[in-house]
Amino acid sequence: MNQRACPCGSGAAYADCCGPYHQGAPAPSPEALMRSRYSAFALNRTDYLLASWHAATRPASLAADDNTHWVRLEILESQAAGDQGRVHFRATFREGRRWAVLEEDSRFLREAGHWYYRDGEASWQRLKPGRNDPCPCGSGRKFKACCGVA
Ligand SMILES: [Zn+2]
Ligand SMILES: [Zn+2]
């Protein structure tokens, strides 16, 4: 598990990327925290999702979700100024044969050296990849030769 590629898509091993943050190391930037939260969604680490959520907006609980497969993260823009940060990202996911993209402009706050997710403006869009379209997972292959294989 620790040697495998990190779910956030950085290209690094999980143990060298989001893994340490899941173990409690402070993420150095809003973008690093965002990536680690994406990985936590992908790995169903609801404990980490709650721990990295700011107390002001944190839900009381989060249900594990085995139906949603997170397949691609794209960071469009990220910035930090003092103890506030923003990350604009796009996350592609699949539920069975249904594909969608979540696009969110998230806000982060730093307290006592730890960044926390505060809230964000999110929108969802359904994807309907055709057989010859580029696969939404970002592999560069055609959908029919990648995730679209029945
Ligand atoms: Zn990662
Ligand atoms: Zn694919």
UniProtKB/TrEMBL annotation:
Annotated ranges, domain YchJ-like middle NTF2-like = 29-120
**What SUPFAM superfamilies does this protein map onto?**
NTF2-like, Sec-C motif
| InterPro entries recorded | NTF2-like_dom_sf, SEC_C_motif, YchJ-like, YchJ-like_M
Q: Please state which protein family the record places this protein in.
A: Belongs to the UPF0225 family.
The protein's name is UPF0225 protein HPA02_34240
Source species: Bisbaumannia pacifica
